Amino acid sequence: MWRSIEAFKDPEGLLTIVLEHPGNPDTRFILKQHAIIVPDDTPASPVIKQVTAPVETQPTAQPSAPPAGLSDAEFLFPSDLEVTNVKVGKVLLVGSCLTALYHEQLQTRHPETTFDYIPYNFVSVLPEAPPSPVSDYDFQYLQIPLRSVLSDRVIWGFRFNEEGFTKTILQDAYSIIDAMLSSAMIYNERHGLLTFVSNFIVPQMSTASSMYERGSNNDLATIVQRLNDYLNEKVAGYKNAYLLNVDAVASTIGKRYILDDLVYFYSHGAVTYQDWDDFGSIARNEPIPPLETVYPVKKDAFLDAIFRQMVTAYRTTKQVDQVKAVVFDLDNTLWRGQIAEHYRPEAQPWPRTDGWPLGIWEAIHYLRARGILVAICSKNDYDYVKNRWDDVIEPKLISLDDFSSVKINWIPKAQNISEICKEFNIKPKSVVFVDDNPVERAAVASALPDVRVIGGNPYLTRRILLWSAETQIARMTEESGKREEMIRGQIEREETRSTMDRSEFLASLHCEVSFINITSTDQPEFGRALELTNKTNQFNTNGQRWSFENIADFLKVGGKILAFKVKDKFTEYGLVGVLYLKGTEITQYVMSCRVLGMEVEEFVVAEAVKLLRSAHTGETDITATIKETPDNTPCREVYLRAGFREIAPQDGVRQFILDGDEVPMLPLHIKKA
């Protein structure tokens, strides 16, 4: 045991004790009383200083203001067990408008990391290769848009009262998830790219039409939760791919501060923001106030937590600083107080066991389920502890037999932990030691510097042990016992599930495209066509913006505008695309990403070719161009997929041609309305 060789009060009246190491008298520690104990990010414990020279009294620092507490990102994804700093160099983001927000914000907030972005809506076909070589990316982050999965049918809430509507929604949603995931995982399947898949944020309130039906199959919140469960099972069937629970992040921070279903429709599932299209631009009797005057927004906290979630998941999959064993002290660590002092048979009442002790007991079992070994290292009398165990542990949720190694003796703890490492055949760097005593933690850290020590604040211990990336495992193994068998059963069920492949799914859509030739700015469709052209960045072959006058002049000199609407068995999408045609050339092609991936884009090119050739006799070559912009990745291969061939570029603009004796590809599952 450590020996006290001197005790005194400093000028401010605070107790100071000098302790001497029993095995090395030259090693001493100062135990100094705190002036004020306040909640902190770190355990509230006495200040410890290692000294090898004569002890001198140090003035006590003035108490500081109480800290603000843990950030949401640190709370959710603790860094306490991190040793190695891992730099994430490049990330590929694939997803809808929520991912676009990630791309915009994260590249500013984390300049040390490069973020590439590929927009993804509906069953899009990703480019044959991402913006950078696949090998350059640390991982891919995929976010499937909830709106594409549910379709806009759910906006008509009264339809949930229809017989069989919910069943149809779920069946279709499962099929869409299958198809979208299959399309979006090509880099994972072809190149083994580590992939994290975001789940859906569940609406924060029930949407059921009555109190009786809340939580039932007619409640959209329940449906989205089921989709999350299904998505989790599907992702588990892929190699080197893992689901990230974004819904849990939003819930912990508070969906009221994040989710846009306060203003927008339920299935949008994105981050709320001030509606800049309306704010101050349109006169109102009562101006719209800033959103945060009624709904405070925690966008920054959410974005920090999302990135932290990515990084911690990456650390787990790479097994950085992985914990293989956790060693627990007993007194004031596994229970309140000291077993020999506070649990005497003749003295009652004993300390309570509810609260954090019960939380630690449960945490131990969950660590075991992950294949992490647990052990006891305590300075106590073994026989006394063994005989009194069932008295102290109440309810009897944990036993000495649950620990793979038990070291209850008076030997220095560092020595016991070294012996445990030998028994487990692991190195000290794989061990976490949990002890309430700061002197014991310091002694172990001094003798075994690679061992990570925690335990000063019992309110932090459980969260650190269960939520840290270093105590997670990427995949269940045989060592995980029953949990591994459960996962294997889920995977087996997944393999036997009947799903549609991409061609079957597309055929089931019953997709129809109707065309509108815009020949005048007076046509009712003109306003929507202009709006779509000037707002679309992703599927826009040159990024050109048009004014009313520009289009009027374009039509006067023989230009043609081919607009189109799309509908399928799910919904009518409205006017979603515009092609600008002149002579024998497609000069610009703009389409909403809402219908991307249905092969509508190729079907429409065929119609445009037909329209251009109708104005000429004989075989006519049709040309098209693409000017690559930072955002238009989705449309860069559209002409190649439609049957064009690429020729030499001119002034940095890609050139394509469909020879006069060639016909464009025409998807057979789409009909012209």
Automatic annotation (TrEMBL):
Annotated signal peptide: none
InterPro entries hit by this protein: FkbH_domain (IPR010037), HAD-like_sf (IPR036412), HAD_sf (IPR023214), HAD_SF_ppase_IIIC (IPR010033), SGNH_hydro_sf (IPR036514)
Gene3D superfamilies per UniProt: HAD superfamily/HAD-like, SGNH hydrolase
Domain of life assignment: Bacteria
Listed name of the protein: HAD-IIIC family phosphatase
